[in-house]
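Anyone else keep sequences and structure tokens together like this?

Example one:
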Amino acid sequence: MVIRRISVLGVGLLGGSIGLAAKSALNGVEIVGYGHRKVTLLRAVEIGAIDRFATKVTEAVEGADLVILCTPVGVFEGLVGEMANSLKAGAVVSDWGRTKRSVVVLGEANLPEGVHFVGSHPMAGSEKRGVEFARADLFANALCILTPTVKTDKEALEAVEGFWKGLGMRTTRLSPQENDQLLAEVSHLPHALAAALVTLQSEKALNLAGKGFLDATRIAGGDGALWRDILMDNRDNLLAAIAELKKRLGELEGLLSGEEREELAKWLDRAATRRAKLHEQKLKELNLD
């Protein structure tokens, strides 16, 4: 599959970065942006993230080889419904949604015959918002999860996987169910926990907060509507992760209540060791050719 025209629906940080990265990596590709705010679309053209824009979904996807949904997950259903009859035969639709079960079902059930859906989850982003923060190198050596099913067209899957690799990403494949379960533990729960931490302190305590507190709560700066859709869409897995967190906090509470000084040190050391191993693993991944 040769990609000559890409339609990016939702030109914010991620959509803008996709446009910048694709224009840098793919010769002669045209990027068409879609959004509701004309000022944002004009800014995207100004910084070179898109070549032109449309304020109607049907116009934005016309003639596109690849369409990427970059809006909050809660908007996907409306976009898919609007675009379905305007996609050319052989077009591929993908997404950057951070949950996959409902998204893949939506794409596979509502696109016309001859148009293929491939779920994807680029593990890249920032707590910053807006196309003005878009970067061509946002995806460099980051991981992208592809979520094929038995219905996924093989050629379309390989094309989407090749696209993300072309932007400098590493790729892996999981089922939509695995994606949602595992990401609840390493992405969705940490975001919810960071948000909860920010709401916990008194104003007097916050005045004493240092870099450690800011590091621990950095991801709480993400867009509320976007993360609302993610957490609600994956609430069953998130609730299970919250239950596991409560168990760990219960262990800590028991050690503190029982004044188990040696066991508390071991509990903390186990966490530190596991974190050190993870950090070493991630550094090795980032140094991959």
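And example two:
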Amino acid sequence: MVRMCFQAFVSFHSEYQLNKEIEDMTKAKEQQIKEFLKTRGEGQFNVIRRLCDSTAAGLITGVFQEWVKWTADEKDEHKKQEEIEERMAKLGLFGTKNKGSAMKACDRLATIMEVGCLLVTVHTWKKWAKLERIRRYGSEKNSKKKAQLKGVKDLFRGFAQELEGGLKDGTPRIEPAPKR
């Protein structure tokens, strides 16, 4: 315990010595700065005092010159700000215009795609309707030809039956007239 206390005292003493050296150096520098400002400050005070004492008009002139300079800077800054805002507005208009063009293009594309789908549907329906009409026409034509063929067959059958019936009954012959 005694050893720990003694070590703490020794470390405190070494830190205190170090801090004391830093404090002494700081005080010396502060003193040097005070002396420098004292000699330097008196010269500056004299310049300012002479300026103020010589004429108040010089001070007023300086103030007005600075004021003119400041207002000119403000005007330039205001102009630059307006130009920036104008350019930003143009960019905004450009963006809006491009957005509108893009939306128009998208709308046109959507319309074209929709019309394309409708065209495919309509053309498919048209093709189906045409094929159906041709099929019906062909069916009707075939039906008529079948009916005609049946009629012709019936005619031949009827003729064949008459011919057979006539052969069974005998053939009526007409004798030719004598020749003179």
